[in-house]
Amino acid sequence: MIETILTKVPILGKSVDERFLDHRRRSLSLAGMASLLVAGCLFEYRWFFKHVVSWDLLAVIVAFAVVKLSTMAWYKIKD
Predict the structure, then answer these.
(1) How big is the chain by its Cα radius of gyration, in Å?
(2) Domain residues for 35?
(3) How many independent structural domains does the chain possess?
(4) Residues 58/40, Cβ–Cβ less than 8 Å
């Protein structure tokens, strides 16, 4: 798949290789997990200390969980 991307866009062939794409995948995964951790901590802080349920933060957490689990299931089925 990487070869098809690089052959379709020849200017990317010089600066984009497998290591670059792997680093990008790992960094995006780490950023997503860090964002989930921050949203979860902020949700719990508002719930425990301010006694307010932040439905928007809960929606972000649930959306992350749904997307993460559905993509994991998709890749498990396809592999």
Answers:
(1) 18
(2) 2-78
(3) 1
(4) no
Question: What b/e string do you get for 45-63 counting C-beta neighbours within 10 Å, with b at 16 or more?
Answer: eeeeeeeeebeebeebbee
Report d(CA 66, CA 72) in Å as an integer.
10
Mean pLDDT of all residues in 23-39: 90
- Residue-wise pLDDT tens digits, 54-63: 999 999 999 9
- Integer Cα distance of 32 and 55 in angstroms: 19
Q: What is the DSSP letter of 12?
A: G
User: Whole-model pTM?
Assistant: 0.69
Amino acid at 45: Y
CA gap 15, 68 in Å, rounded: 29
Q: Output DSSP code: residue 10.
A: G
Q: Which run of H or of E encompasses 52?
A: none
